[in-house]
């Protein structure tokens, strides 16, 4: 990640996306929320708690209204996703989690599409039906991911999972655990390393 972004902040942003997505998918599983993005299925199993809205949770109404407007733009749906409606039972928790969601998944050193792709990878790894549906819809509607792009993202998750499973199982040490962003900047030991999508320098150069 450092080589691709030349930024230690980018590593921190990805870690934040992974942690936040893990907590959201864990909450969705804990509350037994069936996927409701892009559409609600009346035949799906009932969640553990009734889902609130602006009328039934007046103390959370402002946050829910903000989420509803975001959902229309980013997800192309008219309803508020179940994860946010469930959290509305605790208005302060809903607002804090939503603010964190906008901060963590908002543009920083990394763009929003990259972060949403990382969030999908975490949801896929955790085998969260809710998270997979939610972030797939976000990537399709907001960032134009098509079928091939989604499969490529899934392939990256599969490869990373396999690679890390083997490395962990064989107790392999990280080969480059002393990297810093400065190593890739002017005068750094990897200053001339290629960036994303560019071939590595030939051995003769």
Description of the molecule:
- This protein has helices at residues 2-5, 8-30, 61-74, 82-87, 91-105, 112-125, 129-143, 147-169.
- It has 205 residues and is mainly alpha-helical.
- The chain has one domain (2-147): AhpD-like (Up-down Bundle), CATH 1.20.1290.
- Helix 6 (112-125) packs across helix 8.
- The longest helix has 23 residues, at 8-30.
Give structural attributes.
8 helices, mainly alpha, 56% helix, AhpD-like, 205 residues
Number of domains: 1
Which CATH class? Answer: Mainly Alpha
Radius of gyration: 20 Å
Give a quick account of the main beta sheet: strands, pairing sense, barrel closure. none
Please state the overall shape, judged from the principal axes of the Cα atoms: elongated
CATH architecture: Up-down Bundle
| Distance between the ends | 25 Å
What order do the helices and strands follow? HHHHHHHH
How much helical structure, as a percent, in the residues?
55-70%
Low-confidence stretches: none
* Helix/strand/pairing category: mainly alpha
Mind sketching the topology for me?
Blueprint (H helix, E strand, L loop, with lengths): L1 H4 L2 H23 L30 H14 L7 H6 L3 H15 L6 H14 L3 H15 L3 H23 L36
Helix pairs in contact: 2-5, 2-6, 6-7, 6-8
Summarize the structure.
The chain is mainly alpha-helical and 205 residues long. It has helices spanning 2-5, 8-30, 61-74, 82-87, 91-105, 112-125, 129-143, 147-169.
């Amino acid at each position: 990640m450092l080589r691709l972004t030349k930024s230690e902040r980018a590593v921190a942003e990805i870690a934040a996306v992974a942690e936040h997505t893990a907590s959201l998918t864990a909450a969705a599983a804990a509350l037994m929320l069936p996927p409701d993005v892009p559409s609600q299925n009346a035949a799906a199993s009932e969640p553990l708690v009734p889902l609130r809205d602006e009328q039934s949770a007046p103390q959370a109404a402002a946050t829910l209204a903000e989420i509803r407007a975001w959902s229309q733009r980013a997800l192309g749906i008219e309803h508020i996703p179940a994860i946010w409606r469930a959290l509305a039972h605790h208005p302060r928790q809903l607002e804090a989690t939503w603010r964190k969601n906008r901060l963590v998944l908002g543009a920083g050193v990394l763009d929003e599409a990259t972060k949403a792709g990382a969030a999908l990878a975490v949801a896929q790894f955790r085998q969260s039906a809710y998270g997979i549906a939610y972030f797939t819809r976000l990537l399709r509607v907001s960032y134009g991911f098509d079928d091939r792009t989604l499969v490529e993202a899934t392939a990256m998750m599969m490869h990373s999972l396999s690679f890390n499973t083997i490395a962990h199982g064989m107790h392999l040490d990280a080969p480059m655990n002393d990297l810093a962003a400065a190593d890739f900047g002017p005068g750094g030991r990897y200053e001339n390393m290629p960036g994303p999508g560019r071939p590595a320098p030939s051995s003769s150069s």
